[in-house]
Amino acid sequence: MTLPEGYTFRRLEVSDYSNNYLETLKTLTSVGNISEDQFKHLFEEWSRLPEIYNPHVITNPAGTVVATGMLLIERKLIHERGSVGHVEDISVAPSEQGKKLGLSMVNGLTELAEKKGCYKVILDCSEHNVRFYEKCGYIKGGTEMIKRFT
Amino acid sequence: MTLPEGYTFRRLEVSDYSNNYLETLKTLTSVGNISEDQFKHLFEEWSRLPEIYNPHVITNPAGTVVATGMLLIERKLIHERGSVGHVEDISVAPSEQGKKLGLSMVNGLTELAEKKGCYKVILDCSEHNVRFYEKCGYIKGGTEMIKRFT
């Protein structure tokens, strides 16, 4: 993974609540009003299960969060009790586009999945992002199917 | 969910190791040699995290496992700390095909996801299974992208 000078890829910290984490995620989809207590509660839930939840950020030279991503690791029985990584919720702050931070985030999470012993990593994306993920070394798999309740 | 008479949809039990669970999964993909101790270890890992891992089976009138499926529940920050269900590892024993057990399994896991408060359920499938999942109330989403390490 190559980052611009002064940028850092690291695990999410609880203090990122007031460090542009939610604002960056909002470029991806709706987040809603999350209080600091609610954030801490979820942060602790994720932190108690480091073998499953691996939330990461990229910070800029000022130390501000400018990209987000989650690696969720699923323990299966198939493939000799293999683990599968799921890459989720990749977002990049609009003011930081053009620096390949999305590529760095995906590459960082993909390397982490390999280091943690996953036999594969998967993710779902819209058709116009297929080319981007191919640049990250992914190939097309199947079709994502969705059922929404709300 | 409608099952043929005598068939039951239930959570996986540790005794299913010697009740055709692995053999049913093998119709889906390679499983490898899993000892009873290895199975118990993973079963306990899943059981410690019932808010995440929901492995299910369908048994036939003889009580034998003839279908499998997993609902993995992911806790996100987005969508007001919403949960997303991932339907994984659906398999049906070849001798029990034609009884719509796959449909019952997917419907059972989908209902469970809704009951557990997920705002959506997603899964990945091959193109020739799209029609099947449409019958389960799913619609096409994006494209699955994969990177394999082994």
Sequence-ordered SSE layout with sheet pairings:
2 copies of one chain form a homodimer.
Chain A: E1 8-11, H1 21-25, H2 36-48, E2 53-59, E3 65-75, H3 78-81, E4 83-92, H4 101-115, E5 118-125, H5 130-135, E6 139-148
Parallel strand pairs in A: 4-5
Antiparallel strand pairs in A: 1-2, 2-3, 3-4
Description:
Chain A has a five-stranded mixed β-sheet. Chain A has 150 residues and is α+β, with helices and mostly antiparallel strands. The mean pLDDT of chain A is 96. The first copy, chain A, has one domain: Aminopeptidase. Chain A is globular and about 40 Å long. The first copy, chain A, contains five helices and six strands; from the N terminus they run βααββαβαβαβ. Chain A is 29% helix and 33% strand. At the A-B interface, α2, β3, α3, β4 and α4 of A face α2, β3, α3, β4 and α4 of B.
Question: Characteristics of this structure?
Answer:
homodimer; 150 residues; alpha+beta; Aminopeptidase; 5-stranded mixed beta sheet; 5 helices; 29% helix; 33% strand; GNAT_dom (chains A, B); transferase (chains A, B); EC 2.3.1.4 (chains A, B); GNPNAT1-like (chains A, B); acyltransferase (chains A, B)
